[in-house]
C-alpha cells in the first residue's frame, strides 16, 4: 500500500503515548475513501498499516494502561463501515495486536432487519 494515499484523521494515544489507535482514510480510487483503524507504534507508520489493522467490529472504548485496551465487539459495525476479513479470533475475550492486549468488555447482538 502506498502510504501517500493515507490521511490520518485522529489518534487515540496510550497513556505514555508509545502506541495509538490510528483512525485513517485510504483513497481506494474510483470508490472514494474508506475509514480504517490500526494499532500502531511510531515506527509502524512507514510500514504496511494493515499489519496491525483493527476490524470494524471492534469498537475502541479506552486505554486501561500502556499495554491494555478495552474494546466492544459489535458485529453491526461490519455492515455500517464495510466488511473486512480479520484473522483475529473474535470468540476470545482477550486478543493481542502489536503487543497490546485488547479486552472485549461487551458483546453486542446483531440487529436483525
Report on the structure:
With 113 residues, this protein is mostly beta strands. Helix content is 5%, strand content 46%. It is built from one helix and seven strands; from the N terminus they run E-E-E-E-E-H-E-E. The chain has a four-stranded mixed sheet, with no helix packed on it. The longest helix has 6 residues. It starts with 5 loop residues before the first strand and ends in a 6-residue tail after the last strand. The model has no long low-confidence stretch (mean pLDDT 86).
List keywords for this structure.
113 residues; mainly beta; four-stranded mixed β-sheet; three-stranded antiparallel β-sheet; 1 helix; 7 strands
In short:
This protein is mainly beta and 113 residues long.
Estimate the mean pLDDT confidence.
86
Strand order of the biggest β-sheet: 4-5-7-6
Task: Note poorly predicted spans.
Answer: none
Rg (CA only):
14 Å
Strand content: over 45%
Helix content: under 10%
- Helix/strand/pairing class, anyone? mainly beta
User: Whole-Å distance between the termini?
Assistant: 36 Å
Amino acid at each position: 500500500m502506498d502510504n501517500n494515499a493515507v490521511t490520518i484523521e485522529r489518534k487515540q494515544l496510550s497513556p505514555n503515548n508509545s502506541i495509538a489507535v490510528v483512525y485513517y482514510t485510504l483513497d481506494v480510487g474510483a470508490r472514494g475513501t474508506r475509514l480504517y483503524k490500526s494499532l500502531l507504534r511510531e515506527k509502524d507508520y512507514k510500514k504496511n498499516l494493515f499489519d496491525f489493522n483493527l476490524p470494524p467490529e471492534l469498537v475502541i472504548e479506552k486505554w486501561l494502561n500502556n499495554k491494555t485496551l478495552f474494546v466492544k465487539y459489535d458485529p453491526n459495525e461490519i455492515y455500517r463501515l464495510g466488511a473486512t476479513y480479520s484473522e483475529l479470533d473474535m470468540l476470545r475475550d482477550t486478543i493481542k495486536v502489536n503487543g497490546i492486549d485488547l479486552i472485549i468488555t461487551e458483546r453486542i447482538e446483531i440487529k436483525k432487519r
